[in-house]
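Structure in, sequence out. Go:
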């Protein structure tokens, strides 16, 4: 039985379908019709995107979220700095192609170019231009940006031919910067070594335009987009017992069944084994690796004038530093 599902805080739409059947039935797969057509695990950006798609269908579905809030790694903190501050994702990359950027406008939220990116100038020229080699400065920061532009250009050029790894595409004369570039472009950006990344795929992900920030906060924006999506908080899924026709999920509060399950928990969660799969998932899953990204943030008010020399001058928002 799944008695605790009586406390499901679902919206009107899901209450019509899923709640009633989930509460009233023993929820063991195979014995009866599944409680839901689809269960989504995780109310982060991916889970909410999946929920929005399902809202447009007639499917009976719900999102099971382990924590007490939605957004996952998109989390806008409004308390610490008294203004919206994204503690996780803040930049909307590739804005001209981003579906999130389009949804932002449709939902009345405002985007603005990332001021730090606008500052990426090398001798007065846009630091993201491809042909900056002749302008390389002796200044360390400029050198870094210029070399990064050269790496991007080399990867883009390699992508036009037979696909090779990004590691092979990098310019040969990076000197002392090689290790830094290999890290920044590889594990830092994509959680994988450049030798494992395809130049063709990398080339389409390079930001040619400044990323956009959201005045409301990316986390708050994701929350807005979740309107109408039925989310059950405090529902960590610990086991997915899956078969051809349905799956049974164990949560902290009982079990629930569905015809299909969409798992959006992070690779770190999957690798930790916090969600067990019965039977185990096929081999590739075992190879999942993950990294850790943390930021430390300052607001203007928290810093002395001397410290501010090291912060971006255009700081109109709390400034995150990568740890
Ligand atoms: C500090 C930081 C800065 C970043 N900056 C950017 C950026 O500027 N731009 C950008 O595009 N990306 C950025 N990212 C990456 C971006 O945040 C993530 O790619 C994105 O938020 C992932 O969304 P997701 O829905 O896939 O996963 P998540 O956000 O991790 O959501 C997964 C959800 O599943 C829930 N969950 C986990 N386990 C269970 C379980 N067992 N049962 C039920 N629920 C469970 C979690 O609580 C969480 O809510 C950043 C990430 C970090 C950490």
């Amino acid at each position: 039985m799944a008695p605790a599902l009586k406390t499901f805080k679902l919206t009107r739409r899901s209450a019509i379908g899923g709640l009633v059947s989930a509460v009233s039935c023993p929820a063991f797969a195979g014995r009866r019709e599944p409680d839901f057509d689809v269960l989504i695990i995780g109310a982060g950006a991916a889970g909410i995107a999946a929920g929005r798609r399902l809202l447009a269908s007639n499917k009976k579905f719900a999102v099971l979220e382990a924590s007490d809030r939605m957004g996952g790694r998109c989390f806008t903190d409004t308390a610490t700095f008294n203004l919206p501050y994204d503690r996780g994702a803040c930049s909307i990359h590739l804005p001209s192609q981003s579906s999130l950027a389009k949804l932002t406008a449709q939902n009345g939220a405002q985007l603005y170019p990332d001021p730090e990116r606008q500052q990426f100038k090398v001798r007065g020229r846009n630091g993201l231009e491809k042909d900056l080699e002749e302008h390389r400065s002796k200044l360390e920061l400029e050198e870094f940006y210029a070399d990064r532009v050269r790496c991007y250009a080399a990867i883009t050029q390699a992508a036009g031919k037979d696909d090779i790894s990004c590691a092979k595409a990098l310019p040969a004369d990076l000197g002392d910067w090689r290790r830094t570039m290999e890290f920044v472009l590889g594990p830092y950006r994509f959680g994988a070594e450049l030798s494992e990344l395809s130049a063709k795929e990398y080339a389409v992900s390079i930001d040619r335009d400044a990323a956009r920030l959201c005045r409301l906060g990316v986390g708050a924006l994701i929350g807005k987009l979740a309107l109408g999506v039925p989310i059950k908080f405090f529902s960590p899924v610990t086991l997915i017992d899956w078969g051809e026709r349905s799956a049974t999920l164990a949560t902290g509060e009982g079990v629930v069944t569905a015809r299909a399950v969409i798992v959006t928990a992070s690779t770190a969660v999957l690798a930790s084994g916090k969600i067990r799969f019965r039977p185990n998932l096929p081999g590739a899953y075992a190879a999942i690796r993950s990294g850790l990204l943390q930021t430390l943030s300052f607001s203007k008010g928290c810093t002395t004038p001397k410290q501010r020399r090291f912060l971006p001058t255009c700081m109109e928002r709390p400034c995150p530093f990568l740890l």
